[in-house]
Amino acid sequence: MPRLWNETIEAHRREVHDAILTTTWTLVSERGLRAVTMSQIADQTGIARATLYRYFPDVEAILSAWHHRHVTSHLDQLTQLRAQPGDAGQRLEAVLEAYALITHRREHHGDEIGLLLHRGEDVAHAQRQLIDLIRDLLTEVAQTGNLRDDVAPDELASYCLHALAAAASLPSEAAVRRLVTVTLGGLGPPG
């Protein structure tokens, strides 16, 4: 089979896969997890049920794949900010602000969907990547003398994530930015 043909088939498969993920998330957001069937997803996506089952065994598997894609895109965004030019303190602020804004804008999908999406190895792995990313930036900031030295960077990274989780309940992006400022203030050298 010619290479161009293989690339076209693979592109088509990615498009179908992405359409399934997007359609499922939309349906579940509108109707709830228990109200969505594989038949509805196939109909809304414009594919046969048999085709849908070649991609995923059930609605939960589709939602897990959607969540994985979603989390991966956020981690990619934060990794790009971390790699930007500039001093470590500026990059740390950019990463923490972006994370806080992601947390603030996150859709609240209810207990049932939340329990489904926020479990398992994928979530634990993503959390570890996030802590590592922030810890590495904190270690760079420590080399400039602008970081408290009485707490290990790994602990400080965890503190940052927990502090910035409060962004989910704040009323505005301005309030989120103030939270980031307060969090950064707590990272400075003591005294």
* Poorly predicted spans: none
Q: Sheet with the most strands? A: none
- Please tell me what the overall shape is: elongated
Q: What is the count of distinct domains? A: 2
Task: Please write the CATH class name of the largest domain.
Answer: Mainly Alpha
CATH fold-level topology of the largest domain? Tetracycline Repressor, domain 2
Give an overview in words.
The chain is built from 9 helices and no strands. With 191 residues, it is an all-alpha fold. The chain folds into 2 domains: 57 residues, Orthogonal Bundle (Arc Repressor Mutant, subunit A), CATH 1.10.10.60; 133 residues, Tetracycline Repressor, domain 2 (Orthogonal Bundle), CATH 1.10.357.10. Helix 1 packs across helix 2 and helix 1 crosses helix 4. The longest helix is centred in the N-terminal third of the chain and has 29 residues. The chain is elongated. The mean pLDDT is 90.
In short, what is this structure?
By secondary structure, the protein is mainly alpha-helical. It has two domains: about 1-55, Homeodomain-like (Arc Repressor Mutant, subunit A), CATH 1.10.10; about 60-190, Tetracycline Repressor, domain 2.
SSE layout and pairings?
Elements: H1 3-31, H2 38-45, H3 49-55, H4 59-82, H5 88-105, H6 110-117, H7 121-143, H8 153-164, H9 173-185
Helix pairs in contact: 1-2, 1-4, 2-3, 4-5, 4-7, 5-7, 5-9, 7-8
Q: How would you describe this structure in keywords?
A:
mainly alpha, 191 residues, elongated, Tetracycline Repressor, domain 2, single chain
